[in-house]
Amino acid sequence: MIDTLISNKTRIKLLLKFFLNSNTTSYLRGLESEFGESSNAIRLELNRLEGAGMLKAHSDGNKKMFQANREHPLFSELQSIIRKHIGLDKIIENVVERLGNVHRVYLAGSFAQGIDSPVIDLILVGEVQKDYLVQLIDKAERIIPRKIRYLIYDNDQEKSIDWESFMGEPLLIWESLNNTTARVSENS
């Protein structure tokens, strides 16, 4: 979807990197090795996004670190487009909200680090009907072009989750409010 609107693959990778998880920071050489692209192409796009105010930069030693600019007027819209591109909106709509007493959902793995992947890793916390979850995931996978992997923890197990065992820090994407309404995390 997004590649029909934005033809520059490097720009798409940068938008995914910084707007999926706005806490993500990175620098040119790190992006070069992560994307497997030339530093010139990445530098050009970083400069364009920074010039447009979509990214902000700061120095960390001799590195220029980049991060999404949450103050940009289009930040929320860009983040929403990125989430829709990945299919998170469909997962939340078709899977999480129908499972019963789910308290939190975290995005883990590559996507939590802002790296595109054919697999979406989720961590669900709460009382989940596993058979129904498998049915809903099957339906969601037909809508989005990705596979979904999941881990389920009940409420008592959440305190003992070894968060450091996951590749990167998992990102809270959904949280139950008073067990009747839900929201997608705004601090992501």
What does this structure look like?
- The protein is an alpha+beta fold.
- The protein folds into two domains: 2-68, Winged helix-like DNA-binding domain superfamily/Winged helix DNA-binding domain (Arc Repressor Mutant, subunit A, Orthogonal Bundle), CATH 1.10.10.10; 87-183, Beta Polymerase, domain 2.
- The chain has eight helices and eight strands, in the order H-H-E-H-H-E-E-H-H-E-H-E-H-E-E-E.
- It has helices at residues 2-5, 9-19, 28-35, 39-51, 75-86, 88-94, 109-112, 130-143; strands at 26-27, 55-60, 63-68, 100-108, 119-128, 147-153, 171-177, 181-183.
- The strands form two sheets. The protein has a five-stranded mixed β-sheet.
- Helix 3 crosses helix 4.
- The two termini are 22 Å apart.
Which helices and strands occur, and which strands form pairs?
Elements: H1 2-5, H2 9-19, E1 26-27, H3 28-35, H4 39-51, E2 55-60, E3 63-68, H5 75-86, H6 88-94, E4 100-108, H7 109-112, E5 119-128, H8 130-143, E6 147-153, E7 171-177, E8 181-183
Parallel strand pairs: 5-6
Antiparallel strand pairs: 1-3, 2-3, 4-5, 4-7, 7-8
Helix pairs in contact: 3-4
Percent helix, as a range, is: 25-40%
How much beta, percentage-wise?
25-35%
SSE string, helices as H and strands as E: HHEHHEEHHEHEHEEE
The value of Rg in angstroms is 17 Å
CATH 2nd-level architecture of the largest domain? 2-Layer Sandwich
Q: What is the number of helical segments per DSSP (H or I, 4+ residues)?
A: 8
CATH top level of the largest domain is: Alpha Beta
